[in-house]
């Protein structure tokens, strides 16, 4: 079984990681931190085995690795093929010479991981099909983004309309010596919920506001509990 798929720096810092079995974030970070220390200088192989797991890795860019962490019993030939597809997919998504670019496109990379690997096993997918799926999801995301922006714009217009109405009522009340009207529903109700949504209210914003070393918690995704790896 494939335990995890990751992009890490040459020093073993996790940039993006998807676990396919129940595994604490500290565990995957520890495995990736140990990975560079196990490499033998000048070694031509791209696999490393410990007593319990196997690393299958491939350099991407100048200072990063694509890494699969698998059980020792897993089919190494198939794992190599899976790793090559992952490396090509990441290169399609972002500039593999830019760590910050990898982090900023982390959600897209995680999506690619999940399309390629399902419950610890390789799915029947090639790069062409993966590109089609990613393009469709990107298109749907853009449509949703447009819908969210329209809702936000409509909410702001409604808020302005209510504020203008309130100001007119206040002016008339002052003119006729009546008690000033209350604010009513201005700034409350559906307006607040809409303004809190969209990209700024969702999970995209933190990606733009953190440094590579502190964004690891975002990029480590774990699945729901499942049966023990085979």
Give an account of the 3D structure:
The strands form two sheets. This protein has a six-stranded mixed sheet, sandwiched between helices. It has a two-stranded antiparallel ribbon with strand order 6-7. Helix 2 (76-93) runs antiparallel to helix 4. With 230 residues, it is an alpha+beta fold. The longest helix has 50 residues, at 127-176. It is built from eight helices and eight strands, in the order E-E-H-E-E-E-H-H-H-E-E-H-H-H-H-E. Helix content is 49%, strand content 17%.
Secondary structure elements and their pairing?
Layout: E1 2-9, E2 14-19, H1 25-38, E3 47-49, E4 53-60, E5 64-71, H2 76-93, H3 99-104, H4 106-116, E6 117-118, E7 121-122, H5 127-176, H6 190-195, H7 198-201, H8 216-219, E8 220-221
Parallel strand pairs: 2-8
Antiparallel strand pairs: 1-2, 1-5, 3-4, 4-5, 6-7
Helix pairs in contact: 2-4
Please identify the structural class as seen in this structure: alpha+beta
What is the 3D form?
Answer: elongated
Which regions contain 5 or more consecutive residues with pLDDT less than 50?
A: 185-218, 226-230
**Strand segment tally:** 8
H/I helix tally: 8
On the 0 to 100 scale, the average pLDDT is: 76
State the helical fraction: 40-55%
Indicate the proportion of strand residues: 15-25%
Strand order of the largest sheet: 3-4-5-1-2-8
What is the radius of gyration? Answer: 25 Å
N-end to C-end Cα span: 6 Å
The arrangement of helices and strands along the chain is EEHEEEHHHEEHHHHE
Largest sheet: 6 strands, mixed
């Amino acid at each position: 079984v494939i335990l995890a798929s990751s992009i890490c720096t040459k020093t073993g810092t996790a940039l993006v990681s998807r676990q396919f079995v129940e595994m604490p974030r500290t565990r995957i970070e520890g495995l990736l931190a140990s990975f560079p220390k196990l490499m033998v200088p000048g070694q031509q192989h791209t696999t490393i085995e410990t007593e319990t797991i196997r690393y299958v890795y491939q350099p991407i860019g100048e200072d990063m690795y694509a890494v699969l962490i698998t059980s020792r019993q897993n089919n190494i030939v198939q794992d190599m093929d899976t790793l090559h597809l992952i490396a090509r997919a990441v290169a399609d998504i972002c500039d593999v010479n830019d760590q910050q670019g990898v982090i900023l496109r982390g959600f897209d990379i995680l999506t690619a991981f999940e399309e390629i690997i399902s419950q610890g096993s390789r799915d029947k997918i090639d790069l062409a099909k993966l590109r089609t799926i990613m393009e469709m999801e990107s298109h749907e995301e853009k449509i949703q983004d447009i819908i969210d922006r329209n809702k936000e714009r409509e909410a702001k217009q409604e808020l302005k309309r209510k504020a203008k109405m309130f100001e007119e009522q206040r002016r008339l009340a002052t003119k006729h010596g009546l008690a000033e009207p209350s604010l009513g529903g201005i700034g409350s109700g559906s307006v607040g919920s809409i303004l809190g949504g969209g990209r700024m209210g969702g999970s995209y914003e933190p990606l733009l506001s953190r440094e590579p070393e502190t964004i690891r918690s975002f990029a480590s995704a774990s699945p729901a509990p499942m049966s023990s790896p085979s």
